[in-house]
What we know:
The chain has helices at 2-16, 25-57, 63-87, 96-113, 115-121, 147-160, 196-204, 218-228. By secondary structure, it is mainly α. The chain has two domains: 2-113; 139-228, Cytochrome c-like domain (Cytochrome Bc1 Complex, Chain D, domain 2, Orthogonal Bundle). The longest helix has 33 residues, at 25-57. The protein starts with a helix and ends with a helix.
Amino acid sequence: MILSALFAMFTMFEILARAEKKFPVKRLKTLHKINGVVYFMIFLFITYSCLRFISVSGAELTPRGTMHSILALTVMVLFGLKIVIIKVYRRYYPKVQTIGLLIALMTFGMFGTSGGYYLLVTDSWGAVPETAEKRDEGIKMVNKNVPDSIDRGKKLFGSKCSFCHDAHSTKSIMGPGLKGVLKKPDLPVSKRPSTPENIRRQLKEPFSGMPSFDYLSEEEVKDIIAFLNTL
């Protein structure tokens, strides 16, 4: 979407702002329209994926997620307004350039509150992993070998976590696969020591783009950890 927004700005400025045209205007208009369709299709796909995730997981929006949603809704309204002006209310055509610029800027804002934030907080972009902790710290969080707890945790994982995480492999879906997560030295994204307490922390205060599950009770968290301990 970022590349599409940049290309839209480039073609718009070339068509409307450059005095001496370097490229054929007709071709630029065609490319601008095609790019608009591509942008809108990507936008709809991402919107559908996010709404489905929220519906399936039952996750509550964080403040960052709320801001992202407001920007996305505004982009959708502006995009519709731009199309209506171009197709129907031609009298307001001079406003199209401003609307297009706002759409591009808000696209950058959406990226900044989602993918950009994720890149900034991951280790590959310079975040410092948490210092080593005792491997047995927080072991009391696990109801080990309690069948009822494991069964409850499996059901909770299925309803809250399985949309993004595969419990039976390390293959990524939207988030990393969690097979053997408590048997490895570090958690897959935050690189914090793989302890029950750090998994609890990840659920309550997520490290990166994962939504918060701070509405889960302590007993439910223990059940999820008990299930993860069996993987």
